[in-house]
Input
Amino acid sequence: MAAGLMRQLARGRVDVFSGGSEPTDEVNPLAVAVMAERGIDVGAERPRPWTIETLAAADVIVTMGCGDACPVLPGKRYIDWEIDDPAGQPIEKVRAIRDEIERRVTALLADLLRNEVS
Output
């Protein structure tokens, strides 16, 4: 959800990569549904693991509670968002998770763009 929101809000101003420490086989269908409510199609996305190459190319790495399972590269800016996992949650809870992610993505994008100009 975070990658889909960032892509939409950034409109090409930042590159977005998505991955996970223990990705599932498919995107959560309720996450796809609540993102579609915002006009964002994440249904074609496929969960994939982080790679060292992807992490090395990133300026900012946002993690969501992966703890010790997250690879750490020296010199990278890490942000950990403690957000509930939408897996197994009712749609109302998944909407609330999406809305919290959207607030955080909006703030991060503003920070990234502000730092780009300075």
In short: The mean pLDDT is 90. DSSP finds four helices and two strands in the chain. The beta strands are 60-63, 77-80. The first strand starts at residue 60 and ends at 63.
